[in-house]
Amino acid sequence: SRYKGVDLSETALELAARELADLPCPVTLTHGDILEALDEDDSYDAIHSSFVLHHLPTERKAEFFGRAARRLAPDGLLLLVDTAREEDETLDDYLQRYCGWLRRDWTGLSTQELEAICDHIVNNDMPEPYSTLLALARAAGLRETPGGVHYGAHRLVCFAPG
């Protein structure tokens, strides 16, 4: 019945406005922080977070799961798409592995573009091991549902209340 999008990137919001122009419901796009948006009194059938959490320290990730759990409708879903470290992998090892994968496989980008991406990743990314994300979600009252996908460092995970 409605779509609400929140992002810190004005560019992402502009792209979203174009992509969602034909959606047959009211669309609200807000420049802001996802945690603040989840403090509002709205209830949601679905909350989708894509490549956001890995930028937050662990305690803020816990806040995200807690706020999302409070805002989900009883039969709602939290769809999380993000990166996660291997269980025995240090952050430094992860960053080296991930940037190595980008440099090796993202052949359509220039060396300068790849280095800019890797610079961003090394200076901003704080992915957790998957077990930590799962524990944070469970502590917030969420349970993992079937249908998750794991591809390299990337995961799609579905959570529901309870």
Q: Keywords, please?
A:
162 residues, 4-stranded mixed β-sheet, globular, single chain, two-stranded parallel ribbon
What does this structure look like?
With 162 residues, the chain is of the alpha/beta class. It is built from six helices and six strands. The chain has helices spanning 10-19, 34-37, 58-71, 91-105, 111-124, 130-139; strands at 3-7, 27-31, 44-50, 72-83, 142-151, 154-161. The longest helix has 15 residues, at 91-105. The chain is globular and about 45 Å long. The mean pLDDT is 95.
Q: Indicate the mean pLDDT.
A: 95
Shape: globular
- Series of H and E elements: EHEHEHEHHHEE
- Which stretches are low in confidence, meaning pLDDT under 50 for 5 or more residues running? none
The number of distinct helices, counting runs of at least 4 residues, comes to 6
Present the secondary structure layout.
Elements: E1 3-7, H1 10-19, E2 27-31, H2 34-37, E3 44-50, H3 58-71, E4 72-83, H4 91-105, H5 111-124, H6 130-139, E5 142-151, E6 154-161
Parallel strand pairs: 1-2, 3-4
Antiparallel strand pairs: 4-6, 5-6
Outline of the structure:
The chain contains 6 helices and 6 strands. By secondary structure, it is α/β, with parallel strands linked by helices. Strands 3-4-6-5 form a 4-stranded mixed beta sheet. A two-stranded parallel ribbon has the order 1-2.
